[in-house]
Amino acid sequence: MAAQTLDTVSSVTVIGAGPCGCAFSADLASRGKSVMLYGHPDHRGGTTMIENNDGWLNSSGAVTGRFQIKTTSDMYLAIRHSQFIVTTVPSYGQDTILQLLSQFDLPNHTLIINVGNFFYLSARQKVNAHAILETDISPYATRITGDTVFVKGVKKSLAIWAEPPTTQVERLDADAELGLRSQVESIFSQKLVWCQNLLEVGLNNINPVVHCPAALMNAGWIEATKGDFYFYAQGMSPSVSRVTEKVDKERLAIAHAYGLDLVPITTYMNHNYSNDREYSDYHDFAVGSVIHNKTKSSPTTLKHRYLLEDILYGMVPWYELGLKCGLTSPTIRALIEMASVVSGFDYFEHGRTLKAAGLGDATKEQVLMALGGPLDKTSSAIPPPSDSPVDSSFQLHAPLQTAQVAV
User: Fold this and answer.
1) Exposure of 344 by Cβ count < 10 A (0-12 exposed, 13-18 middle, 19+ buried)?
2) For position 348, what pLDDT does the model report?
3) Are 166 and 21 found together in one domain?
4) Cβ(365)–Cβ(132) under 8 Å?
5) Residues 245, 188 share a domain
6) Any idea where the Opine dehydrogenase domain is (predicted)?
7) Which candidate, 125, 128, 117, places its Cα nearest to that of 159?
8) CA triplet 382, 386, 392: central angle to 5 degrees?
9) What is the domain-level CATH number for residue 107?
10) Is the CB of residue 158 less than 8 Å from the CB of residue 192?
């Protein structure tokens, strides 16, 4: 792929027509981009809603308006629409999308996986895309209500990583890297914080910390009420919040073992949402966050992505990464085992494991090198305060690493 000189992208394909895909589509269209939203034939999501509205997507909240969106369930048409493809499908649907994409020749396409959850572990050598990028978390807090996507809140920043060059392909020159990086930044309305390795992004995803303890410890309430309670304000009691903070400490310990200095969950929440005050601890945040309590947000069943995604594709690789460093992560392991009993299958067997990626017998150092290498002293998944004189998007983080695949 030749070096790009443009710093914006006029068209984007979004794969996955759930709440996040619809919110992303509305956000992109609100900034004048041509959007095609792909819904899998068996999971068409919001594409049906848009087609019933004659091709228009209604959006309210943080992204408000009525936007014209192209829709399709034909992956060929989706790929032809744009060289930039953003996937928003839950992690348990990523293998299906990966199988579809692997049937196409994509040396001119850039794949942006949102949320990544170590997608690269599955995608290694299966897709010949120009670049594969992963973000740490969804850009939006959002729900679909009736014929409208309701965007409750928009994150301030996202951590993002691009696959490193391999021995088979050469790294792009610096101008080409900066050109691609600028194009990707034009797709997001959030500030992008470029990370040097996949571990920095995968361990910065706070969804498993937030969702899993609350879902499992409120199992009785979820099954009795079908989710008719406020997941944050009511479900995240002082006891549940203490377990959440313990999981977070184990996450931070794993990150530290790989040379990462990530921030605690409450600091993350204070940084990424426009709150009317600083929260002192996680329970204070859960009860007080206006954004997170605009809707009840509780899962209606335990067969929900809060377990099927956040444990299978988040906690399982976290736990295995910890074992490589001699960390037992007892609270994380306990939640994985509880989820296995609740769901009726072995999460350790079916999760996104290092073994499945060919790294089961790898040492800590080998895992680190396979996923981008050790960090330099300046890398961080959280940008500096807004009044800092440093432009973090270009000065605090390592250059974008991306692969060039021959046609």
Assistant:
1) exposed
2) 93
3) yes
4) no
5) no
6) 194-342
7) 117
8) 50
9) 3.40.50.720
10) yes
Enter the pTM of the model.
Answer: 0.79
Here the tokens at position 359 are 């790294």
19 close to 90: Cβ distance less than 8 angstroms: no
User: Domain limits at 106?
Assistant: 11-196
Tally of domains in the chain:
2
Token pair of 152 as six digits? 């409750």
Q: Rounded to whole angstroms, how far apart are CA atoms 188 and 194? A: 13
Q: What is the pLDDT of residues 279-288, one digit of tens each?
A: 999 999 999 9
Q: Peptide bond preceding 115: is omega within 30 degrees of 0, i.e. cis?
A: yes
